[in-house]
Amino acid sequence: MSTDTATPAAASTADRPPSPAPARAPKRRSWLGLWFVLPFLAVYAVFMLWPMLLGLYYSFTDKSLTGRPVEWIGLANWAEAFGDPAAMDSLWNTARFTVLSTPPLVILGLAFALLAHRARRIGWFLRLSFFAPFVIPVSVVTMIWLWMYQPAGGLINHYLGEWGLGGDRLWAFQEDAMGSVVATTVWWTLGFNFLLYLAALQTIPAEVYEAADIDGANSLQKLWGITLPLLKRTTALVIVLQLIASLRIFDQYYLMAGGAANLATENVFIQYIYNSGFVGFRIGYASALSYILFVCIIVIALIQFRLLSRRED
Amino acid sequence: MTALQTRLEASEDAPRAAKRRRRPRVTPGSALVYFAAFALALLWLVPFLWALTTSFKPETEASLGQPIHWIPREWSLEGYRILFERGEHVTWMVNSTVVSTIVTALTLGMCVLAAYGFSRLDFPGKKVVYGVVLAGIMVPAEALIIPLFDVVSALRLVDTYWGLALPQTVAPVMIFILKRFFDAIPRDYEEAARIDGAGHLRVLRSVILPLSGPILAAVGIFTFIGSWNNFLWPLLVANDPSIMTLPVGLGVVARGYGLLYAQNMAAAVLGALPLLIVFLIFQKQIVKGVAGVGLK
């Protein structure tokens, strides 16, 4: 900064009469608060903000895991990503998983919650049984399910065969592994949606139903006329949370590939990002792919944000 | 919709007597509900039970598979014995415990301080900073792994506990939850302490924290479970089997041992056990914590 501009500024502040007693803020402003926030801000900056900026920068470069000098290549990664059939296939698989897993996870979550809400005396047992899988590590989940999916000696195939549905081939899961990943995911994560719905059901006052009883409504009418309309917001929230969770599919797909499932050449999007970066060493390209995922999820997260903030009004 | 509203309003004036809960009658309908609920809950437990009984079979019996039988013909601890002899499982369990404990302690510490700062103190740029923190809630961790790995390897933290733990401590959503809770605590409680000359750290420790037990428990438990079950990040940053966490060890190394089902299911049972115990102990807080997501 040159003295020419600094001096008048300094002079003008010095000339100004001492300001009168602060009229606007009775609350004391000081830097003290920043010290409370600083430890978090430090890790936030290093492990979230900085990687976000770095990733954006890398997406315009040919950055490689091998550590050779980085060169700016403009939009080449982005153009390649949208023209890469393998990338689009994996994105399509992620979309397919999302479309296949969201309806059962939402509808069964609601159905189980409705049952548990009415079967109150065994409520603790239902909560335990439906939610327990959710706290289990994903690799344990896939170990158990791969064992159950085994064509020979697997539990599922055995019972399907016994009921005349499969013989000795794995029904429905043989040709397309996506079905088996979806079924495993439903078992694993249903408990979360179940609890969200159960909590929402418990906030509906009993009086609402008593009024309907007086009008002589039957159970089905009460379900359609009262319960489901009152669960509209919860349903919106559950769907949005589920879409975000499903778009992030990686763990169970990765772990089940090469097992019972027939996935060797197929990927989901995050797995393709992972392979581009850590198997193909192309950090720049993987960064561009990451940002495509990022944008997809942010769009849905913004909807969630609006839902949540509307709720606070 | 309006009909429902008038009913809701009318019901508020309903005599209190009507509020008393009627004793549930046993009707064919409710019997059916109980039966369906119970059957589904049992069905949901099948994978656990199948893993458990398989783990107690001798390897020859388990791996043969057919014919299917639930109760082991011969009870055996062979699967568990091999697991403990190999010792990896114990190492991974220790690693998971260390990493999850570091993550939980740091997350709680940093988020409590930050939430107090945002809730009770005024500093220049606070609104902007809080906005930036809130925006972080929407960022999916999976989309950051590539540059994050670059940062962590530049810090020479690959294959270390800190490399595993530190990135997982960034939990802006926990600040949001804690700040909202702190905001709801009436300021009157702190006045007395402030008049006595207590500083902010003192107020936080002796006024705010004692009132925040349940929310701290919820944040702590969810952070611990989330960290214990995290798969993608530990998969990237722990390449040495001696530093792997349980989910990664089971998923990457143990899978290589092939189709040894008694042993695999023993590993699965032991892998599920710590968190099932945590869940059983804290069931109430966990259920409430999940419910809170929907209600607020």
From TrEMBL, chain A:
Ranges for region Disordered: 1-24
Keywords of this entry: Cell membrane, Membrane, Transmembrane, Transmembrane helix, Transport
Stated family: Belongs to the binding-protein-dependent transport system permease family.
Annotated ABC transmembrane type-1 domain residues: 91-304
Entry annotated with the keyword Protein transport: no
Protein name in the entry: Carbohydrate ABC transporter membrane protein 1, CUT1 family
Gene Ontology terms: cellular component: plasma membrane
From TrEMBL, chain B:
Region Disordered: start-end pairs: 1-22
Protein name in UniProt: Carbohydrate ABC transporter membrane protein 2, CUT1 family
Record-linked Gene3D superfamilies: MetI-like
Subcellular location: Cell membrane
Chain segments annotated as transmembrane: 31-52, 92-116, 128-149, 161-182, 203-225, 265-282
Domain ABC transmembrane type-1: 93-282
Native source species: Glycomyces sambucus
PROSITE patterns, per the entry: ABC_TM1 (PS50928)
InterPro entries assigned to the protein according to its UniProt record, in alphabetical order: MetI-like, MetI-like_sf
Family indicated by similarity: Belongs to the binding-protein-dependent transport system permease family.
Record has Transmembrane as a keyword: yes
GO cellular component: plasma membrane
Keyword terms of this UniProt record: Cell membrane, Membrane, Transmembrane, Transmembrane helix, Transport
Membrane association type: Multi-pass membrane protein
GO biological processes: transmembrane transport
